[in-house]
Design a protein that fits this description.
Number of helices of chain A: 11
Structural class of chain A: alpha/beta
Largest sheet of chain A: 6 strands, mixed
Distance between the termini of chain A: 39 Å
Number of helices of chain B: 13
Radius of gyration of chain A: 22 Å
Order of helices and strands of chain A: HEEEEEEEEHEEEEHHEHEHEHEHHHEEEH
Oligomer: heterodimer
Chain lengths: ~425, ~450
């Protein structure tokens, strides 16, 4: 069984464009051996090894002949998983004058890439958490946000950006109507608040979306602007949403906002994925019936039984419930890191009943697939980027953490000095 | 009698009367000293542990037996310094040794229910840190409908803060602290002088000594009844009769605190409640030899003033490496793992601290910090029967508290925890619509 699997893996390696069989490897080859290798699709090799060359994964399996001259790194009793992927990250943007645009509520023509600070310390923290790929979604204080951007959290700056599918975000509820604490603007200079922004109600947010869509349809059909508030570029970008060329994401915490999102989507014949989804447990049947993908989270330390944003707090078993209903979902840490990071989100999901293998998928291959990057990241299969995490225990356990992180084959975190030793 | 009043509907299953025996059988008994007993038996009689041993340990015929096959049996954990369940834990007056946390404890607080759900059997309820001299604290069980029934140790300790309360500076803080004790001294001396004069009058003798001498002669006649409530607690504290929980947020506060405690000859009564930056004073704290309660944050971010470079220090590791007995407390009080005391212990293990040390920091050392090291903190003969039945390794992500015995009585049972089910699934089980008639009977 196992040798057969390995043969399969090697065969796949042959088929992959950037890969070749181990005996034909060229250049720097890194082999990582560990007690367990979790591929990220449910497959686990015990013990396992992965072979990396030229930033790509060449092979993963239980045992196979090592290529001559390979740099073999023994990770001992550790576990290797794919690098984690966050499909709704809110970190890495410049803190001041970053992503909270005050000029308009509808900014789908803008690109989050322009608000990212690749030198932000957020990325170091993400790497320390084992997160290697993030899709940074638009800021929630816009009703229709800028397009999200996908990037690696480490490695050479020039190699960071990834070609994710275009996604804009509609935010419903308190963030976009300017009341929430998360309506982060340039707070030092007055901030974004109901006194400086419209809309100021949930109805207002829905109206801004409707009006923008109607304007965009009119612009598309008549070829000229009918709304002096909305730039032609914004309306062109919304036309892409209507045409399905740009995907729509909806951020909403409360169930009532989710129902509004469904109404709005129906009005314009749109489909959407559902971000934040604090009260997803209240909408399970509708989510399942409509096959709406869910990007759930984060569960924050402040989401206690005693407080919650607007009284909304996630049902603790939400990931398990989503899985049980067969709803396509992944987890996000949003702007959380460290104790609130993506690994912890997976750990909490496990704590509250989610199967461990699915928990791993929900922070690797599932989010990669949701942002159209499953051909690049999210699994340890040949041909994908060699983004991987070595954990000094079971992944997501409270007593374990990432000790070695590779992005495109390069070490970006090396707590035990494995690579220093190899190079000395 | 008293214990029977502890029954809380929905939490206490299978009520039995005091004096009944209980036994936990078949689980792995894990103690903070590192010892383990496989398929162990714990016998509790009259609220106290009377036997701990292997499967051969005899169980009294009348004992209620809790089966724990495949489970981990762990001592009840202790919050050695907390404001959970307190209604407004900070007093506005800077020097208020006369207040009593008794008046602030909210027995019906959901936070006490949460304590049981998360394996905490003993709570030291003490005023917040935003004070100069706080009032008396109380060690309680997190169960009961009146403070009297919850009480383990009444009027136990006081809070003294070396770190300035919000809006004030360190010099003012220390000046207020010193002045409070100087005021006390002046007041007690005046009382002593008056007492001497009264004694002389009783004996129909004249007061022939100078005031200083009268104070000296009268001082030994002063009893607590001569002082009004404003001064009593502070007077007892000044004589070293009250443990002092000394809040020192920063390392410089630790230094100031130790200096003041030495000056007041009260160092032996101190328990240090420190912030993350206080890791820098680990040497002084070790030398002081007193328990240290760490901030739930655990990680200190040091920013280099010149380069702006940030370094993260895992604070418990510093104390563990120095051999200081430190105590953990949860960061906030949230339902998810952040709010779990054992999650803090797991974080310690993640950062390279030995498991035994991490276990001690939530049990035995916490018990010692509240002066109950001989009574609580481990599963040992003679100690109180506070026992947690965990579903597995207490440091595992997925482990939960299945049952909890408080002095031998079942105080929490996960299988009947309706609120937990609601929190987990988001369904309101009390609402009629959540229980369709067709399935209600199942």
């Amino acid at each position: 069984m196992i040798p057969a699997l390995c043969a399969l893996v090697l065969a796949a390696a042959d088929a992959a464009p950037a890969a070749s069989a181990p005996q034909r490897l060229r250049g720097d080859v890194i082999v990582l051996q560990a007690a367990e290798v979790h591929v990220g699709d449910g497959t686990v090799f015990k013990p396992g090894l992965v072979i990396v060359q030229d930033g790509k994964l060449v092979a993963a399996g239980q045992s196979m002949p090592l290529p001559a001259g390979a740099n073999v790194i023994d990770c001992g009793s550790a576990t290797i998983t794919p690098g984690l992927v966050d499909a709704a990250c809110q970190l890495g943007t410049s803190a001041l004058f970053g992503a909270a645009e005050q000029g308009s509520e509808v900014i789908p023509q803008l690109d989050m890439w322009d608000a990212l600070d690749l030198y932000s310390r957020d990325f170091e923290q993400l790497v320390a958490d084992g997160v290697t790929t993030v899709f940074v979604t638009g800021e929630a204080s816009s009703v229709i946000s800028a397009k999200g951007a996908a990037l690696k959290t480490g490695g050479p700056i020039a190699d960071r950006r990834l070609p994710a599918k275009p996604i804009v975000k509609l935010t419903l509820g308190p963030e976009s109507s300017g009341r929430g604490a998360s309506n982060r603007g340039p707070s030092r200079f007055g901030g974004v608040s109901y006194s400086t922004r419209r809309p100021t109600t949930r109805m207002g947010s829905a109206w801004v979306f409707r009006k923008a869509m109607h304007d965009s349809i009119a612009f598309r059909d008549a070829g000229r602007a009918s709304n002096e508030d909305l730039e032609p570029d914004a309306m062109r970008a919304l036309a892409d949403v209507l045409a399905g060329k740009t995907a729509l994401r909806v951020q909403a915490r409360e169930a009532l906002d989710f129902f509004t999102a469904v109404k709005l989507a129906d009005e314009f014949g749109l489909s959407f994925s559902y971000e934040y989804a604090t009260e997803a447990a209240q909408c399970l049947d509708l989510l399942a019936a409509r096959k709406i993908p869910v990007i759930f989270g984060p569960v924050r330390s402040s989401d206690s039984i005693f407080e919650g944003f607007e009284g909304a707090m996630p049902a603790l078993e939400t990931p398990r419930l989503l899985a049980a209903k067969g709803i396509h979902f992944c987890l996000t840490a949003s702007d959380g890191s460290g104790e609130g990071g993506l690994g912890r989100q997976a750990g909490l999901a496990i704590r509250f009943g989610l199967d461990r293998a699915q928990a791993l998928r929900s922070v690797t291959s599932d989010p990669a697939q949701m942002v159209g990057l499953d051909g690049r990241v999210g699994r340890l299969v040949p041909g994908l980027d060699a983004d991987l995490v070595v954990w000094n225990g079971a992944p997501f356990d409270d007593t374990a953490k990432p000790v070695l992180v590779l992005i495109q084959g390069r070490p970006v975190l090396d707590l035990q000095g494995k690579f220093r030793k190899e190079n000395s | 009698m008293v214990l029977s009043s502890l029954l809380v509907a929905g939490l206490l299953a299978a009520a039995s009367s005091i004096g009944d025996a209980a036994a936990v059988r078949g689980g792995t008994i894990v103690n903070p000293d590192g010892s383990r007993v496989e398929k162990g038996v714990v016998v509790i009689q009259g609220g106290k542990i009377t036997a701990v041993g292997g499967p051969e340990t005899p169980i009294p015929a009348d004992a209620t037996v809790y089966e724990a096959d495949g489970k981990v049996v762990f001592p009840g954990m202790i919050l050695a310094h907390t404001q959970v369940g307190l209604d407004i834990p900070n007093e506005n007056m800077p020097v208020a040794p006369f207040v009593n946390v008794y008046d602030s404890i909210e027995p019906n607080s959901a936070e006490y229910e949460e304590c049981l759900r998360t394996g905490i059997t003993t709570v030291h309820a003490i005023q917040g840190n935003n004070t100069v001299i706080g009032g008396l604290s109380r060690v309680i069980r997190p169960l009961g409908d009146m403070v009297e029934y919850m009480t383990v140790r009444p009027d136990y300790a006081m809070k003294i803060s070396i770190t300035p309360r919000s809006g004030f500076n360190r010099m003012t803080q220390m000046a207020e602290l010193r002045r409070a004790f100087a005021d006390l001294k002046a007041h007690v001396e005046a009382v002593a002088e008056r007492r001497y004069e009264e004694e002389q009058k009783k004996k129909e003798e004249k007061v022939l000594v100078v005031p200083d001498e009268a104070v000296k002669l009268g001082m030994e006649k002063v009893t607590i009844d001569d002082l009004d409530a404003r001064w009593r607690t502070l007077w007892r504290a000044s004589k070293g009769e009250v443990p002092l929980f000394v809040h020192c947020d920063r390392a410089m506060d630790v230094a100031n605190g130790i200096a003041w405690l030495r000056e007041a000859k009260l160092l032996e009564k101190a328990v240090f409640v420190v912030g993350t930056e206080a890791y820098k004073s680990v040497g002084a704290l070790k030398q002081a030899g007193r328990p240290v309660i760490l901030s739930g944050t655990l990680v200190h971010k040091d920013v280099d003033l010149l380069t702006g470079k940030e370094t993260e220090i895992f604070v418990p590791k510093v104390f563990a490496d120095a051999g200081v007995h430190f105590v953990l407390q949860p960061n906030g009080f949230a339902f998810n793992a952040d709010g779990l005391l054992w999650y803090q212990a797991a974080r310690c293990v993640r950062e390279g601290i030995a498991r035994d040390v991490a276990f001690n920091a939530v049990t035995q050392w916490a018990a010692e910090a509240i002066g109950m090291g001989d009574t609580l903190g481990s599963i040992s003969t003679g100690k109180w029967g506070n026992v947690v039945i965990f579903s597995g390794d207490p440091l595992d992500q997925a482990t939960v508290v299945e049952k909890l015995l408080l002095e031998g009585r079942l105080a929490y049972d996960r299988s009947t925890d309706r609120r937990l089910k609601e929190l987990s699934t988001g369904q309101d089980l009390a609402a009629p619509s959540a229980v369709p008639a067709a399935t209600a009977g199942k």
